Amino acid sequence: MVCQLTGAAFMQVYLPIAEMAVSPWLMATLGLVVGCLSGIFGVGGGFLMTPLLMLMGIPAPVAVAAGANLAAASSMSSVVGQFERRGVDLRMGLVISIGGIIGVGIGSLLFSWLKSQGAAEATVRIAYTILLGSLGTSLVWESLRAIAKTRAGGPPPNFRRSTNDIAHRLPFKVRFPRSKLVISVIPPLAIGIGVGILSAIMGVGGGFILIPALVYIIHMPPNLVVGTSTLQVLITASATTFLQSAANGSLDLVLSALLIVGGVMGAQFGVIIGRKLKGEQLRALLGALVLLVALRLAADLVFVPSTLFELSSPGGGL
Amino acid sequence: MMARFSLWMVLLLGLIIGPAAQAQSTQVSAALIDDAVLVTSSFTGAKVTVFGSVRAGSVGRTDIVVAVRGPDRPAWIAQRKRTAGLWIGKDQISFAAAPTFFGVASARPLEQIAPSDTLSLYGLRPKGQLDIAKASADSPLADKLIDAFVAQRQREKLYVDDPNGVKLLKGGLFRAGIQMPDRTPPGLYTAKVMVFRNGRPAQSTLTTLVVTKVGAERALFEFARDHAVLHGLAGVLLALIAGLSAAGIVRRFAPG
Looking at this predicted complex, what is its ipTM? Predict the structure, then answer.
């Protein structure tokens, strides 16, 4: 299956770190599709790209590094557009990113501990399934309700209605002028830490979890959500790319370049498509996507897996 | 160039020495057509060709078996298992060393050439080449997992057994071809040529070949290995520049 997938095109390129040949067209197309999604939703696409690469027989550490590198590139390409249309709350983005970097540190330690207990993979898979499942369900549910309300002629639901929730009750209040919010600095920091932990453990940018958090916990204006999350993905994914190369030596620049060529172009199309969709539609689509990935993971947990055996890569090092 | 020269020398020597040798003794000489496999950016695998000549008595049957073995590296295999109704558990065993590539070529199926124990003893079976790690040796699942490991690597064409890989030519000459896939790792490879007489090993000869990255592949690999921090920064920089330029290009051609 590996050979069929990578051998489909007429030309192959050898990857120096992964130590295998892949079709450059297939990789660029994958980058294009995932980049497009990341432009639409402001997610990095790591949670899609990393498993896809692994399915094609690329060793897991190489797949994680390449996924993070692609996420960095496509979020860079879309954050430019977001800044131009003033869709980024820079202060909020930086606060969350500080939390994110702390979280990456905690996550790495946590992961080593889980690994030493022999429970790393099981924990990650169950957590991933529960997290994505509940997230996807709530996203789809909320946005379908909002769409139904709009159809019925009522006013769109106001996500910023509450001034009495957790973000307002906690101390250390900070003004976020772009978002027109005066809230405690603790929730964004905590969200950043949570996303950072997940990023370190699962090799994802964390946009898919950040967007609902910004909408439902921080109550950011919808037009700032995607841009701010893109900025955070850019910072986290860059950090992961760097760490994967410096600590694990698993960054394959040839693979990255192939994915990025497609990815940055895709991200541009994604931003354009995203502009034409309404907030509720965007959230419904993202919810459906997240739900699909969760169902795929759940199927792996419940049904007899198609591959009972897993092997180390031929090179043995990765 | 050297490889070709030594090849002709081998053939010449075979012709000179061959008839002079005692009637009952078996002589074999062999050489690789190319003793280096170069891994470039278009590397999709390579065929290793061994040429040689064999002199053996006229009584009974002579078989030639060629084995090419890649460098040993650590490896592991895990089997998923159901725990509390969910597929979250794993049984894993590790190998201290396993050949990264193991290809055997012959003119007819190995089982017809020699008994199974002989084949194992002379290292023509991949299973016998696996060095199981001490911690995994007592695992009750070891046998099953070792079989699964070999089967999986056979599916990936890393462990190959080709019963049509050796072509016998006229005058005791033979040619053997073993295909290596793109995932074959670089390193020092050993090629062993064995002559079987009536199912018993009679003579063997060893030669080596090197699989090595060259050009851009080598430069990138060494950069990643020797300057991991700079390599990481290069990755981040690549992402930032590519993102910026894509944004610039799209803005120019598709404003709004």
Answer: 0.78
